[in-house]
Each structure stands twice: as C-alpha cells, then as structure tokens.
Amino acid sequence: MLHVRLAPGPAPRNLSRRWDSSACLHSWCSVPCPSRLNLSRTYSIKSSSAGSATGLCLGQCCRIKPLSCKCKLGWSSQPPPDSRQHFSASSSASEAILTAQSDIQKLFVANEKIGVLLLNLGGPETLDDVQPFLFNLFADPDIIRLPRALRFLQKPLAQFISVARAPKSKEGYASIGGGSPLRQITDAQGEALMEALCGKDIPAKVYVGMRYWHPFTEEAIEQIKKDGITKLVVLPLYPQFSISTSGSSLRLLESIFSCNVREDEYLVNMQHTVIPSWYQREGYIKAMATLIEKELLKFPKPQKVMIFFSAHGVPLAYVEEAGDPYKAEMEECVDLIMEELEKRGMENPCTLAYQSRVGPVEWLKPYTDETIIALGQRGVKSLLAVPISFVSEHIETLEEIDVEYKELALQSGIKHWGRVPALGCEPTFISDLADAVIESLPYVGAMAVSNLEARQSLVPLGSVEELLAAYDSKRDMLPPPVIVWEWGWTKSAETWNGRAAMLAVLALLVLEVTTGQGLLHQWGILPPLP
C-alpha cells in the first residue's frame, strides 16, 4: 500500500460579493460555510488488477451512433500493471504528484481500458412513460422515507402517488413536446465528451446511467462490465454536489457495488474515482458567462438587466443538519460567474433563488416564485433567468421556468424576460469536462478525498464509499424531500396526524350511514334506516 499526498491547491477563497438587497428578499453574503468538512489530505492507493474481459460498444449502451474518432484505443489484453509501479518513478517517501498530461497518458492509458460514467436524473421520453417514471421516483426511499415498520408499503404507496399525479404531470410533458429531452441531450453530451477525450489522445468509452429512467445506472454498470473497463471515472452531471442529487446516484452505485462485492470479482477489482462537483472549473465558468453575455445583448438596455440565477432547491435540513455543501457551492458558483462577467465589462446586479420545492418541509430560501414577485414589486423591468444547476434542458427549464415563471414575471410587472439556455454540448463546457476526466485519472483507485476547505480546482475525488462517508454520514437521519409520516410533536406530524384523524372520522360516518349501526345511531344522533 502506497500513501499519496495530493498536490496542494489554491488558498481558500475570500468571497465578499454582496447580493443586491433590492433584488432579493433579504441581503446575504456568500462566504465559505463554517460547517464544511475538514478532511485529511493524505490517503492510500490500493493496488489491484482487473483481468481482461470482453467488450461491448457504447452505441449499445446509450444508443449513440459510433463516433468517427481517429484516436487509437490501443487496449491490451494484458492485465494492467500494479498501481505501485505507476507511482514508483514519481514518488519520494510517501508523496506522489502527477501534473503533466503526458505523464497521465503514459501511466494510465497504455494498458488500461478507461470508462467514464455520466450520472443524471432521467426523465420520461413519452407520455406513456410518465407514470412508471413517477413510480420509480417515489419508490426511492430518499424521496419518500417511511418508518421502518411501514417500509413494506413503499412500492404500493409509490404506485398510488404516481397514478394520482400522472395526469397533471402528463400535461406538463405534453406542453414541452410529449416527453423529456434529457435522455437525448445526455447521450449527445456523452458522445461529445468521448470525441473530446479522443481529441486529447485519451481513448475512453462514455456511458450514461440515469437514476429513475432508462438507461438505468444498473444497465450502465452491466455494459461497463461487458466492456472490460479497468479504470472508471464517475462524473455526475450536476455542477454542485448535493446529497439529494449526486448523493442519491452515488448511494445507488454504493448499493450496486456492495450487493455484488462477494459474488462479482470484477466490481471488486475495478478501480474507480468520482468527481462529485466541478462548478469551480474555469471552462464551466467561462461557458456560463458566455451564454449569459449573449442573452444580455438581446435586451434593449443590457446594463439594466437583473441576472436571476435559479437553482434547484433542496430541503433546508440537508444543509443545516447534514452539512450538505450544496448551498455554499451554489453561492460560490454564482460569485465566480459574476466575477467572469465583470472581467468582460458587465456589472449587472444579480440574485439567487431556489425552485422546484415539494412537500411540507422547509426548503432553501429565497424561493424563486416569491423572489420574482418581490422583484416586480421593487421596480425591476428586465430579468434574465439563468438555470444555474442544470446542464441539460428538461421539464424544470422548459416548463417551470419558460412557462410558469415567465408568466409570473410578466404578471408581476416585469416587462422584458429572457432565459439563458442550458449548457448542453457547448464546446468550451465539453472540453473542460474532458480535462476534468483527464486530471482525475491519477486518482483512479487512490480513493482520495481532497480537502474541502482548500476549495481546490480539482474538487474532492474518491471512491463512492468514501464520498458517501464524507458527505452523507447522517443520511439515515435526514428528512426526505417529501415526508409522508413523521413521528413526534412536529409541525409535519401534526399535519399528518390531523389528516389521519379526519379520514378515520369520515370512514366511521360512511360506515354508520351505510349500515345503520354504530354509536351515533345508539345515541340517537342519526335516525335509524327505514
């Protein structure tokens, strides 16, 4: 076992941007979260070797047409050399630092089969897919968490909710063309990423694993096994890490690995690493700034436009109780984008709000809908919406932002509305993702988690298991986004207990009226049946 110390990153950022108090419901400052985890920076590289395996093309995994990539795979059927040999030339005592791209290629490409697994939410592709997609969503214990004694009701309850919500959800998907474009866009991103890696002389295959719809993560893992991938980079397509997005997908990966750990030697030996967030990367920041700049120039008075960052919300308890870095990463991400815009001569005011809240629990504030109303009341006339947590168009951008929030903005007195498109396959963005994959290759198998306080450009890398332990140590105690039952004297418990009592009284009344028997008839409150 070889101990490796990660190369030191830049000093922690001192963020001081003040958000426009006239643009938001309250004034706040983006500063590093004091509760962020402070992890050790020395880790172990576990050596392992994965035997050769048969291959299966990416086109079968993600239904992507094969690329006309000219880079030679050069994969050998020989097992990869021991990882200790990889680092022996560049390590002194317990330290090993690899920075040159040529070193990465030499050490990690020659005898390896490299794979990249893109993780995303998934979405129904047709209206017929809506109900089963919703079933998969609500059958996830991280979405609806029942008491242990009632977990046998998880799937029946998911079936009931999905059937009840399907008609309204179908209306939303019908309004954007009859289904979510997320699968097609993610497939295109995977194809573009594979081409970008080929252009950088890194032969790799890219796979797509969705959380709640095809191609499921389990399907992607099966294809990865059939392809004989020996080094895997896991890349969630969420710029900022959250327990409820990247964390949920990583928990699924953890369960796949742990369930097969005794019977699947391949998964035991396959080396992998995770890039849990990448919002700080220069290419991502510049790509976002370029899209914003293009949309600003479409307004009559670009300098007067309020830039409105709308992020997907998460339950407040995730941040306050579990130390979810999502809020801090989101605020810093906005700060970095605004700094880039200022370098280009644009000093527009901006604000950040959170959308898509569901259920009775409190979510991150300010809420997008409330903030739009407040901006209209305060005289804002031009608003540019920026979907900051989304890299692909889907129902939350095409319907929630483009339809619901646009209508709300116009009703609130805002005269000029614009929306920045999601990044999709924007060349700078894709090229930067390829660079992130290349930079992570030395860490494959290292199971290293870098220091969160250091705010390195190459943000925490590690195995699925260690990431979950670092980010989500309290996941069993976290309230889910939608609470069905919560025991104890809480506001949510009072609500559900009251509903249960009302249902019980209603059932008794129906029973008495239909049968003519019961306490109300015995006491003479209800007349006997004729």
TrEMBL record:
One of its GO terms (molecular function) is ferrochelatase activity. One of its GO terms (cellular component) is chloroplast. Its main location: plastid. It catalyses: heme b + 2 H(+) = protoporphyrin IX + Fe(2+). It is found in: Plastid, Chloroplast. It holds the Pfam family Ferrochelatase. Pathway: Porphyrin-containing compound metabolism; protoheme biosynthesis; protoheme from protoporphyrin-IX: step 1/1. Keywords: Chloroplast, Heme biosynthesis, Iron, Lyase, Plastid, Porphyrin biosynthesis. Coiled coil: none annotated. GO terms for biological process: heme biosynthetic process. Gene3D superfamilies: 3.40.50.1400, Chlorophyll a/b binding protein domain (1.10.3460.10). Its EC number is 4.98.1.1. Belongs to the ferrochelatase family. This is Ferrochelatase. It comes from Hordeum vulgare subsp. vulgare (Domesticated barley). The gene is LOC123428101.
